[in-house]
Amino acid sequence: MTAPTGETAGRGWDGATRAEVVSLPMNRPCGQNLLQMMHQVAALDPSPVRSGLTGVHVPFDVLTASTNYEAAAAAAVTSTARLAVIGPSGSGKTSFIGHVMDALAHTHGVGQGVAALRIPVDAEDPAVVTEPAAFAAHVVRTVARLASSQGRIPQRQARQHRMAAGAVTRARQRGASVTAGVPTWLAHGDLAAQLQSVTTSVHTPTGAELSELADTVVATLTAAGLYPVLVIDDSDTWLAGTVADRSSNVAPFFGRVLPAVARDWNAGLVVAVHESYLTMPEYPRRDGWLNTEVRLPRLSGADAVGLLLAARASATTHQPAGVGDVAGPEGLANLHADYIAGPGSVRQMMSLAHTALTVALDGGSAQRLEGAHVAAARASL
Fold first, then answer.
1. Residue 232: domain span
2. Is 288 helix (H, G, I), strand (E, B) or coil?
């Protein structure tokens, strides 16, 4: 798919320059046809499945016309910095991290590329986020599952994965936005088999053996010419005052588990951090082991909202979309006003747009989301 360009942002609602208007296909779906297509596939779903997040991510570097966000994060990772990605709930931390790591997986960074190991922690046993040995065991189990899954892929499909890895690399070199469906670094030779052998070499490992196994996993990836990076993108939900208050996880995870990883493992680290953690005395901001921070910005105007909606339209139709294709000026302005009045949650704003889309189609003749549709959607929530 082709993502909307950042050049349209800030220049007008309906395709500001002649060159930009000409660049959009004349026969692309638009009007009520586009709205119906998007409604049928829930294109404005505020919480798309994780595998689809990076496909609709509009880089903050595009939205801000800067290199302060995705480019800065990529530079930090490839220089072996340990990175905290900071923002409120729903601000786009998960899609931001996925976009950056997806890009790095197909470019030459430290060694011959980056092997992103996504390590889920939110729904795991409490020991995983409080004890370094339990976390090491969790990493080993996660890698074992990943390697085993890759090992079960038929030989023909494995070849297709390797071909896809090459195609994605070439697309990246052309500047295209591509999201691979599998971790392509696992297609390096017999790497999956090596990792499977390492992670199953000890039947019931002790704490010390688990630490050694984790070290061996990292060493195996490094020997394959890859730079392993632990990616923890769901560590930002332990909020105080919620129904399931798990804020007590913040101190041991950020104060004991991750410092041990930073100290003992020769691997990179990218971690999602809720902005409220920064005010907690338990969060070790001054300890230095998370040595780089990228704080996600707020959307600066209605034009940025238009780019986000255009990305969802593009993902639906597999064609470029303009800023004004999905919503008109007043609709975009109302969505942005609601976003600014709230906690800065793109997810919450997209939920409002999703409801407004239903309202618009219920009216029967809408060509775009207008201000009245957004107002009616807000009143219904």
1. 69-295
2. coil
Indicate whether 236 pLDDT > 60: yes
**Which of 245, 266, 307 minimizes the C-alpha distance to 7?**
307
Separation of alpha carbons 161 and 159, rounded Å: 5
Q: Do 90 and 182 fall within a single domain?
A: yes
**Residue at a domain's end among 234, 265, 295:** 295
Q: How distant is the alpha carbon of residue 169 from its chain centre?
A: 19
pTM of the model: 0.83
Query: Does any domain span residue 64?
Result: no
Count how many domains the chain has.
Answer: 2
Q: What is the pLDDT of residues 64-118, one digit of tens each?
A: 999 999 999 999 999 989 999 999 999 999 999 999 998 887 664 444 588 999 9
Q: What is the pLDDT of residues 271-307, one digit of tens each?
A: 999 999 998 887 877 677 888 999 999 999 999 999 9
Those residues whose C-beta lies under 8 Å from the C-beta of residue 141, and which sit 6 or more positions away, are 199
Number of C-alpha atoms within 13 angstroms, CB side, residue 263? 11
Q: 226: exposed, middle or buried (C-beta count within 10 Å: 0-12, 13-18, 19+)?
A: buried
Residues 256 and 197 in one domain: yes
- Pair 50, 231: CB distance under 8 Å: no
Find the helix or strand (DSSP H, E) in which 269 lies.
strand 268-274
